From TrEMBL:
The lineage of its organism: Bacteria, Bacillati, Actinomycetota, Actinomycetes, Pseudonocardiales. Residues 122-321 form the ER-bound oxygenase mpaB/mpaB'/Rubber oxygenase catalytic domain. InterPro entries: Lcp-like, MPAB/Lcp_cat_dom. It comes from the Bacteria. PANTHER family: ER-BOUND OXYGENASE MPAB_MPAB'_RUBBER OXYGENASE CATALYTIC DOMAIN-CONTAINING PROTEIN, SECRETED PROTEIN-RELATED. This is ER-bound oxygenase mpaB/mpaB'/Rubber oxygenase catalytic domain-containing protein. One of its GO terms (molecular function) is oxidoreductase activity.
Amino acid sequence: MPETQKTQSALEALKYQGDPLADAVIADLVSSGTTRAVNEVLARFRDNDQPIPEDLPEPVRRYLVATDAPPAWTDLNRVAAAYEFFVDDGVHVASVLSFGAMVNCYAQPRPSRVLSLTHRLNQPHRRLSETAQFVLHLMGSNPFGSGGSFVPTIQKTRLIHAAVRYFITHSGEWDVAADGVPLCQQDMLGALLIFSVQVIDGMRRIGVAVTDREAEDYYYVWRVTGALLGIPADAMPETLDEAQALNARLVEASYGPSAEGIELTRNLLRLYENLVPGKAFDGVVAAMVRQVVTPQVADWLEVPRSRGWSRAVDAGARAMRLLERSEDRSRLATAVLDKAGSLLLSGSVRTLTNGQPTALTIPSDLREKWLAAGVCPVAPPNRGR
């Protein structure tokens, strides 16, 4: 069999592969009726330095022990380099995640249908909040070691995915033979490429300069994350160039219109529009989405057109490119770029929970550096109370 056919066959096989380690835990919890008790314990398990709770069923403890460290091939120097990139450009990463990556996820009909079956079509604030917190924990200075919070985050994420697989598979509303396993490893790989490769592409599309080394390191830390999520190591490309090729062949080739994707996008745009007072500027949100995603994806998901705002956003992207070229020499240019990104993220934080206080937290080391640079989108805690 030719190599390309072997590769395609391996990718197709991922459609029928779940996460055996996490899936076995969820099946045991459901059969024993201990799901709620375990949820209460895991809610208190938040930091890498915390010992694994004693009051957990043995299958859960074994799972947590087996998944508490990154793969042996992890290069912590490259992880640290990705952190430095995020210190400089984290607010821009957040912007592209919000406007581009989330919408591109909805351009995939199968994962969008999974969201519809979990009744989360009308909860964009929750999905955005969870994604933002995941990325913030990942991009701390030592996400996999002491002082970080990412390991429990990713362990619990795997269990959530396994629970979704279990209940959708047993719902009678999903045909595994025809559609594959819900939240299969192919979907996981696609999401990884959207949040890594496509974020870098989106940043460059709106005029944010990203060096090849920064792009490689940012993708690398996501590849480590993929391994912790249970994605087979041989399914994840080793280099950014290979990942970009797979993104085109696997992810972008899966894009298409769906009723679920259109509704998810409409609800997300409505959430973003609430960031802007009044109605006069509503068109700028859709124009910004159209700047980051491809025209075909925007059309499939029925993102509104606005010729005036599209021109304004395009002009803004050109201005950002000019500012980026002068960023190292101009404090004013730096301030303009960082303020634009932090304004979006701070607005997102305020509205993620429909006006209610949010538990979204920024790692302390990242918060301190952003505060020192004057770009932290969330005010520090009030220590006077």
